[in-house]
Amino acid sequence: MLLHALFAIAIAIAVPLAQEGAGQAATASEATPQPPAELLFHLGPFPVTNAIFTAWCVIAILVLFAYFSTRRMRLVPSGVQNFWEMILELWVGIIEQNMGRRRGRRFLPLIVTAFLFILFSNWIGTLPVVGPITVRNAEGHTIPVFRSANSDLNLTAAMAVLMIFLAEAFELRSMGLFGYLKGLFLPNPMRWLEIFTRPLSLSFRLFGNIFAGEVLLATMLGVAPFVLFVFLGLELFVGLIQALIFSMLSLVFLTIATAHEEAHQHAADHGTTAGAMAGEIEREPH
Fold first, then answer.
1. Which of 27, 99, 173, 188 could share a disulfide with 103, CB 3.0–4.6 Å?
2. How far apart are CA 116 and CA 171, in angstroms?
3. Residue-by-residue DSSP string for 104-136
4. 258 DSSP assignment
5. Burial, 96: exposed, middle or buried (Cβ in 10 Å; 0-12, 13-18, 19+)?
6. This prediction's pTM
7. How far apart (Å, rounded) are the C-alpha atoms in residues 195 and 164?
8. CB-based contacts of 85: which residues, under 8 Å, 6+ apart?
9. How far is it, in rounded angstroms, from Cα 248 to Cα 94?
């Protein structure tokens, strides 16, 4: 993924320099997206960028898709219902294998929602049919209406901070305040640094790969559009991989955070079973 990002950035920089003054390179340079998301409009005092607008569209698509595909559930799934059940069964197997059934069912909605949102955001931003849709904003600049939500560092950072906050909150709940504070320094005195490094790695990995993909596609569209389908397929694959990586890492963090909770539950279940067996033995006639 690092090589992919470096390759895309190298193309974005080298092509305008090599063909400076040529119309083809000028078109490619103008089409290349910039790291800050472009402002579309204001909703009251709040600015709405094209990345946020795309995120809203993805949420609406997922909600409508889920509603219309599950309103007539059948015992034998078919069509779109079969698609949803296939995704759920895949994630149920992965999550229960890592967390167990009780914890896994609790975190299943969170992990699957994050996966679907990131996946659809990546793919919608990659599709060439939405790129040419542009508007003129209040400053008079022509900007694209749609842009992958994950190509905006603000959004990826918000998702990463939310995941780490939930993981730390569940760890605090399972260990108690004293045990949680103790775990920040013992046995690893640098454990508290994970709280800051985890959201950085989650957010920058997702942002870097998706933004580099957009730069690559925009550049190749202006330089060599006849081979664009090759890079389009690559970016669709990268979008899937990045959605899996973010979701799997979030699952790992939540699994580690609630490990003590699972140990306490096993001890309680073992104690209940042992007490029941002792009671049965005492009731047996001598």
1. 99
2. 25
3. HHHHHHHHHHHHHHHHHHHHHHH-TTTTT-EEE
4. T
5. middle
6. 0.77
7. 7
8. 77
9. 9
